[in-house]
Amino acid sequence: MIGSALGIDPELFSLFIVPIFIFFARICDVTIGTMRIIFVSRGMKTVAPVLGFAEIFIWIIAISQIFQNLTNPINYLAYAGGFATGNYIGMHIEERLAMGLALVRIITQRDATNLIDYLRAAGYGVTVIDAEGRLGPSKVIFSVVRRRNLRDVENAIHQFNPRAFYSIEDVRRAAEGTFPASVPGTTPFRVGRFIRKGK
């Protein structure tokens, strides 16, 4: 037994150390799995297989401990708890990384001049279309932005057109586009090459 080899009481090892190990192993493999699914959806073909290998390797280790200690119900709770926690952590990490592009669609019946001017001055590419809604004429504003800039765009919407309806969608691929420069105060730049989301 591993516990005996480490000089740990086998009963203590089985009742406490193994569940803790299973819990954290599940956190790791599910977090990696959540990230892998996100990367697959964004076409990142190089990273996804590496994460998949790490995910299944850790899972095999965790499940082997379950089968070696079937009589300890704490292992089952640790397994389920690690799975739930791993999902949460994986989504949180992905949100912090904010990789890829997103389409922001804004529909407003109010004058959107200030909002449009702000977005363009900040370096965002903006397309404006006249539309007709249930309550009359409206403007539809489209902009493809980096996901890390979404908070800035949402803040601008709330500031200049707080009653506007807007939606945000993931963009898998995009060709051409204007995006704010990475360094504040510098000139926005156009991207003329084919962009893959997540790159």
TrEMBL record:
Topology of the protein relative to the lipid bilayer: Multi-pass membrane protein
Keyword Protein biosynthesis included in the entry's annotation: no
Domain DUF2179: 124-173
Limits of the DUF5698 domain: 34-91
Transmembrane segments: 12-35, 47-67
Cellular component per GO, a single term: plasma membrane
Keywords in alphabetical order: Cell membrane, Membrane, Transmembrane, Transmembrane helix
Localization per record: Cell membrane
Main localisation: membrane
InterPro entries, per database record: DUF2179 (IPR019264), DUF5698 (IPR044035), N-reg_PII/ATP_PRibTrfase_C (IPR015867), UPF0316 (IPR022930)
Keyword Transmembrane helix: yes
HAMAP family documented for this protein: UPF0316 (MF_01515)
PANTHER family: UPF0316 PROTEIN YEBE
Family named by the database record: Belongs to the UPF0316 family.
This protein's name: UPF0316 protein R6Y96_08115
Lineage: Archaea, Methanobacteriati, Methanobacteriota, Stenosarchaea group, Methanomicrobia
